[in-house]
Amino acid sequence: MIHWRKLPNGHYSLDEVIRIFSVSVFDVTPQEEARLDEIVREAQHFQETRRINDFDESLDTWIYANETSPTGYQNYRIITDEILDYRARVKGEMIDQVIKQGIYEIYYHPSSRRLVALCRKEDAFKATGIFEVRFPMQLEKHKFNILGIIEESTDVRGARFNVQIETVTGVSLKGSNINGTQYYLNMLQAGQLTGVVVTYDHGEKTVTFRISVDGTLLFYTGLSEYECLDFIDMLYTI
Length: 238
Fold this sequence. Notes:
Layout: E1 2-6, E2 12-17, E3 19-30, E4 44-52, E5 55-68, E6 74-90, E7 93-109, E8 114-117, H1 121-134, E9 137-141, H2 146-154, E10 161-167, E11 172-174, H3 182-189, E12 193-202, E13 205-212, E14 217-221, H4 225-236
Antiparallel strand pairs: 1-2, 3-8, 3-9, 3-14, 4-5, 5-6, 6-7, 7-8, 10-11, 10-12, 12-13, 13-14
């Protein structure tokens, strides 16, 4: 998505390219004192055989270790064969399943024990599940302090901001001092909070993100992947 900025003379200028992407973050617990910083140094290949459409198919999974971010996040690219239930006809014969190739990208920080999946929530569990099965670790999806984020966002301290709180009833709250209203307190007591959308300046760029109560992040931003990782680190401090 391209964002255009309106100039004082009424013309428009190309400001920045806005990307929309989902992020899920998992806290990592090593198993049996495993040294997780050494789990993947080079490309890994795993293979298994599954019976599909009355035929023994070989399913492959590759994990490629790529570059490391300045703050210590190791990038991994996962390419894996996936079985899908799909009724179709191939060369005159009916089949019930097909094999597709899934491609996922994740970042792992060994010292922070943090796994970040840059993909849809459903795919994030697939990608991180491969790590959990193949390597000695347990994963738990991180739930950010959403009430703390609301409080920090409404305390703007001179920064440009916009806050929108979402509820299960479809009602949304906007503006400053949202968390000081009686409606907000009633909403919390009724368990109606579903997520919050926050927009504010981060360095020289504007960051808009939605965070749901289950911890899933949805970014609308021109930040790079490395900048988003730094932003996630900041959210951990709230």
